[in-house]
Amino acid sequence: MTAARPIPLSNATLADLPEGIARPTYDRAGLTPGIVHIGLGNFHRAHQAWYTHRLMQQGLARDWAILGAGVRPYDAAMRDRLLAQDCLTTLIELSPDHRAAEVSGPMIDYLPIEPGNASLIAAMADPAIRIVALTVTEGGYYLDPVTGGLDTAHPDIRHDAAHPDTPRTAFGAMAAALRLRLAAGHGPFTGLTCDNLRGNGAILRQTVVGLARLTDPALADWIDRHGAFPNSMVDCIVPATGTAELALVRDFGVADDAPVTHEDFRQWVIEDAFCAGRPDWDRVGATFTADVHAYEMMKIRILNAGHQVLVGAAELLSVPTIADCMTHPRVAALFCKVQTEEILPHVAAVPGMTPPEYLSLIERRFANPAIRDTVRRVAFDGSSRHTGFVLPILRDGLAAGGPIEGLALVEALWARMCAGTREDGTVIEANDPQWAALTEVAASARTRPEAWLAQAAIYGDLAADSVFAPAFCRWLTRIWAQGAEAAIDAYLGG
């Protein structure tokens, strides 16, 4: 499989790639754009872009090519890497017993990263663009931590309301482009979020319409009435790209500065509610449905919350990857007990899959040793992920009078993790947009555990709950006094 001289990836070298590497069979020069995707990282290229690529391999969707986009300065480095290789990406599928490489090519350009986002706005204002999709992380939707509505006090939102023609956010840019489309007599595009949020389409609608309403109520009404924001559920484990992944793609004989590794599983469930057409992604494995909610809840609660069950303990115990978590006796046992007793009771079945069956699937996927998905990546932005994934289950458990000791322990392990050191004394580097504030509160919580729960933006009224609050304080006190393993043993033996 190893080539002496890896071939630089580009349109001109596709025919020269080593045998066995799948590549576009369609004429990329004949593609025309129909999608702008904002937040173009590894997940998009391994998931949504792959579905579009697969349609193109069948001779379909030639007018649904993707324009990459970003609104943050750090997106410029990815833009440079991808433009240098004609926006091609090598996707490497890693299963426990085989590896396979495929070059994907549905993305045909990457828009400039610039203050005011003029190029992005102009592209989205073009009526040829019928979908604007996003992967901007769960914490990127400017949600008010108390009401769940748009956080109109956030400096970014205030800026975009004051400068609607030169916005700094993706949502401000979408509103600006929709204003131009309305003025030109064009219909709106569909806003399609691919982030792990419950009711993600409704949240995207709330953010775009709410921001537009701050400056142009008539525009907001038009977007709300004529636009479309489908809910969706996305699933594929896609590790970050580092030195190992760069070496792996070269082992395949390809010089690709932005390769993506991924597991041998994908799922995409989409509400069939588009206002300007859509690709037939269902022809290549996606599911269109009128009700995404049950799929979304199963995935977010078992997989995404499950990740958070693992990573607090894993960071403290210096367990490096999710696969390693599944072979660690205590961490794996914690995961199994919390899932079985405290998460699955609050998950409904979906067509063809019960919650226990889905948990078995997740356990197999998490245990895949070929996927070097780091605990650090999965633990990133815990302040959003615990709020969005774990605490809703905890609230359901409290409302039902069910067990919540394991989830209280999970929260205590996260609080201890945010103190910034592992139990072997090594430092946990900043890994949350709120890291400075979290570490400060975590230090106070060492002797006064209730200080952690006083973070109203995260816990709200849970700080006063007569069942959860004492359980959390008891677990955090035990972790600091006896260590994470002793606390987990106490939970497992309870």
Automatic annotation (TrEMBL):
Transmembrane segments: none annotated. The keyword Oxidoreductase applies. Keywords: Oxidoreductase. Residues 291-476 form the Mannitol dehydrogenase C-terminal domain. Residues 34-282 form the Mannitol dehydrogenase N-terminal domain. One of its GO terms (molecular function) is oxidoreductase activity, acting on the CH-OH group of donors, NAD or NADP as acceptor. The keyword Zinc does not apply. This is Mannitol 2-dehydrogenase.
